Known about the structure:
With 322 residues, the protein is mainly β. The protein is 1% helix and 57% strand. The protein contains one helix and 17 strands. It has one helix at residues 88-91, and strands spanning 8-20, 23-25, 28-45, 51-68, 73-84, 104-115, 121-137, 149-165, 174-190, 195-196, 218-228, 232-241, 268-278, 284-291, 299-301, 307-308, 313-320. A hairpin with a 4-residue loop joins strand 4 and strand 5. It is globular and about 70 Å long.
Amino acid sequence: xxxxxxxxxxxxxxxxxxxxxxxxxxxxxxxxxxxxxxxxxxxxxxxxxxxxxxxxxxxxxxxxxxxxxxxxxxxxxxxxxxxxxxxxxxxxxxxxxxxxxxxxxxxxxxxxxxxxxxxxxxxxxxxxxxxxxxxxxxxxxxxxxxxxxxxxxxxxxxxxxxxxxxxxxxxxxxxxxxxxxxxxxxxxxxxxxxxxxxxxxxxxxxxxxxxxxxxxxxxxxxxxxxxxxxxxxxxxxxxxxxxxxxxxxxxxxxxxxxxxxxxxxxxxxxxxxxxxxxxxxxxxxxxxxxxxxxxxxxxxxxxxxxxxxxxxxxxxxxxxxx
Length: 322
């Protein structure tokens, strides 16, 4: 009917600073660090005049270490405190009152090896563990259903990146190459029952032992292409995402006549193509890309009801570096 029902001004100012130092003892190096995050939030309801503010500060320690067995092989490890603040609109309601939403906090560990067996080849293998004391789960707004919730969560897995190319072969007019990034996430567990932020009530299905929603077990991006001496780079890319749950209860079959929020999101893969030309002697790159070449139609999100992926997208442009 043309009546304005919401008019908000939300202001967020974020400040961060860190201090770290790298110590080296022979082939061993370690880097302790300390970071400070400070966030100031303000929200004003222009319809009622209600306003509120909330500030948040957090100290984040970290420690990174590496050991070089040789110039080609390094072992590395790290531990740091993870932090992500709640969103302005979740922290301050439309009446200007602060909501008791805690920041996301986690302890993040990694252990890996980085190797360059020969010229033009490299591989990184990393074990990771992200242990959330508190994870914020943004609920759906479709039909006023799943509210904002908090709980404990654990993610564990392996990341692998690799590159192989004919860079070491001289006088090649075109240098072929292939690279990939793969993540295996066997563990994405709810560690404690997630509860509503506003009432403290349990979220249906958010039980310890279930797999967290939107946490596919396998992710792969693989690329094959070639670079020319004249600065042209052409490649084809495959992006693969494994199936994933859309709700805490790990519902597999979508109910008929539902709102689209429940049901497993099936795995999907898409192909992308790109051409880049770094113009010789100039700080200029001209590019053209085609994403989702086959114009695949698939579901990527159910938080607010079924959201499908973007259709085929063709882009072209240029980049100038000063």
